[in-house]
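Worked example 4.2. Below are the chains of a multi-component assembly; read each line carefully before continuing.
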Amino acid sequence: MDQRNIGAIEAGGTKFVLALARADGTVLAETRIATRSPAECFPDLAAFFEQAAATHGAISAFGVGSFGPIDIDPASPAYGTFTTTPKPGWSGARYHDVLDRFGAPIVVDTDVAGAALGEWEKGAGQGCRTLAYTTVGTGVGSGVLQDGKSLMGFSHFETGHIPIARDPARDPYAGFCPFHGDCLEGLAAGPAIKGRWGQSLSELGSPADKIELIADYVAQLAVNLILLHMPDRMIFGGGVMKAPGLIPALRKATQARLAGYIKAPQLDPGLESYITAPALGDEAGITGAIALGRRALA
Amino acid sequence: MDQRNIGAIEAGGTKFVLALARADGTVLAETRIATRSPAECFPDLAAFFEQAAATHGAISAFGVGSFGPIDIDPASPAYGTFTTTPKPGWSGARYHDVLDRFGAPIVVDTDVAGAALGEWEKGAGQGCRTLAYTTVGTGVGSGVLQDGKSLMGFSHFETGHIPIARDPARDPYAGFCPFHGDCLEGLAAGPAIKGRWGQSLSELGSPADKIELIADYVAQLAVNLILLHMPDRMIFGGGVMKAPGLIPALRKATQARLAGYIKAPQLDPGLESYITAPALGDEAGITGAIALGRRALA
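Applying the procedure described above to all two chains together yields the following structure tokens:
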């Protein structure tokens, strides 16, 4: 049994989940803190891991699955640093600033790549060569893994901002994205749903017409992910995707938009195994952060 | 000097380019044949390479950059086999059926991945870690290379069929894609332009309004490629892209749709180095096929 300790951070727009785990995944300590500026959050991170290390022993590696935009290129001198973001205080903040004091290697990837990795190792993505994990919540983002390694180009992907076909007669809401207005995130993320209808889909009782509208927007990302990545499976998580009926409606809308063009054994007739919710639920992120940390262990 | 011979095939929807080259890229023999059924084309392929080998020496490897859909997974038992296609005779046809007689290893990739590789080795994609090559011609397709290796999931990508935001008041043309109607290919490929306006953009004299319409459709793919792959550069080739003014209009439309969201040194202010025409022009494909063959040399 590997008794080394991993410090794991799942950093989301609303909250941080912090955990100390054994290399085998056993969680020894866990806490949640509200996301504020790094000046406010980082001391809480340090205090938690210092306390956990004092109780359970030194930390051998850190794994971080974080909101972005953030430099996730291990070859970059700015690895682990937030790039330009409107979130107050976060531009230029770096996980290493708070974690270097522990003298352990640090692996940083996006929150969605972390969740994808959690699902790939222990959840709905097991056995997939290419796996796409998308969250639709406060924002929209996707991580794509190939053989368990997250794909990136000059930066991590930003799938929330794809252009969307929108019928203004059906949906007069102009979208809330400060850059694009009615991109996918601007139309289908949590703030768009509340901005348009005053409540979340679940609070509204998941009415069929609203579920179908959001499903068709998310389906346009699903189709783009298929055509530009050909993943073996697609997992859709995040708060918005919890609305009853949204995953089945997403399968239907994706199938309608594909129109039979892609024929492959991966795409089962009703897409029921192809498009799924996360098997680990809200634990996907921290499970993935632990897995990221495991990769830093020699 | 490596004196071994490579047989190279660039297979397009209209024509095949066949070449015999030295491993260093020097072309010894080259011909073009019209694309017909494999029963008609394959004997021409065999005859060309038999003649070329008789003149220049045995062939040590084959490189094929082909139209699809085709199995390009080297681990698959059906590697090099066309999958379901409406093209008469091509479903189930396999390059190995005609090339195995030469007793040389065969590398097969898509035509666009081949062109991307040609540009990466000798053209506009040199030095790019992640490179996207898109053709807009009879059809639309993209190859994405990372460190010179083409990316794929369970199959090669099919970027021509992405959903597109279309304003029917501005463009009443319903699209010609038999699966999706007004997907990108259905609206912007050569047949869509001739179907809508009777002539190609170049024949029409590249009028600004028509150039802008097509540029905005192609820009939606450009934006999706950025957000889902973050390439260091994007090359746009194919017959449609040769229309004067289309590449500059594509840069402008892509920039308008990005709306400043992606900040990276790769994206220069006017996208002039980020979005380019192929430096090798029509030679990108056969150059890439030779490069594919080179990879099969021990």
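Take a moment to check your reading of the output against the notes. Chain A touches chain B through 41 residues (CB under 8 Å). Strands of chain A lie at 5-11, 15-22, 27-34, 59-66, 106-110, 130-136, 140-146, 149-150, 233-237, 275-276.
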